[in-house]
Amino acid sequence: MKKIVLRGVLAALIGATLSACVPLVIGGGAVVGTMVAIDRRTAGTQVEDEGIELRAASRVREALGDRVHVNITSYNRQVLLTGEALTAEDSQKVEQVVRDVENVLSVVNELGVGPASTFAQRSNDTFITGKVRASLVDAKDLTASAFKVVTERNVVYLMGRVTQREAKRAAEIARGVDGVRKVVRVFELLTEEELSRQMVAPATQDPAAARTPAKP
User: Which residues form the signal peptide (predicted)?
Assistant: First the structure.
């Protein structure tokens, strides 16, 4: 009986952790998120990003059904689209549908044109995401919780509000992971001074007002 109770407690803890960490994924892509308590976004922005993902997912399904395999990841109202669309027209339609979602500031369309990825490919992407995440955690000069990692067809996408040094270092680490074909940076850059101020006293205003998108 004690073993049964212990297993139940462990299952509950694991379930709670997963529900706090994992953002929306449409079509089985690989995404690793960060917990609300240690995210560099405000709590309100994190909730808003979740809402954007849900609304965008619903509208894409309504507009295109099973014709596309789309992963939608919103970070500080910047939306990353990964996955596949059968035609360039479908890809553009997905982008437009997501752009029209309330509170979306910008869309980075990385949809490939072609058939949906296989289960084996998606499993491999999940494995790569885990390895990149572990490598970021192991790095002593980075705060791993500042990064969101998305992998699609062996291409790793890095998101987060980071400094130029952090962006460069994280990209170097991701490139060094076995199986990674390419690294795409989808960052919002902070100066070292901005980061220091945020660490001392987390901003209460919307950080999107001062966003500076990084070049891929």
Answer: none
* Per-residue pLDDT reduced to its tens digit, 36-80: 447 899 999 999 999 999 999 999 999 999 999 999 999 999 999
Task: Report how far residue 138's alpha carbon sits from residue 88's, in angstroms, rounded to the nearest whole number.
Answer: 39
Structure tokens at 58: 């619903």
Give the tens place of pLDDT for each residue, 137-163.
999 999 999 999 999 999 999 999 999
Which ranges of the chain does DSSP label H, i.e. alpha helix?
2-21, 43-64, 88-99, 119-138, 164-175, 192-200
Q: Which of 121, 130, 123, 124 is nearest to 174 (CA)?
A: 130
Residue in 47, 33, 45, 186 with CA at minimum distance from that of residue 106: 186
How many Å apart are CA 7 and CA 135, to the nearest integer? Answer: 30
Q: Would you say residue 33 lies in a domain?
A: yes
Distance spanning both ends of the chain, measured CA to CA: 55
Domain of 162 in residue numbering reads as 24-65+117-216
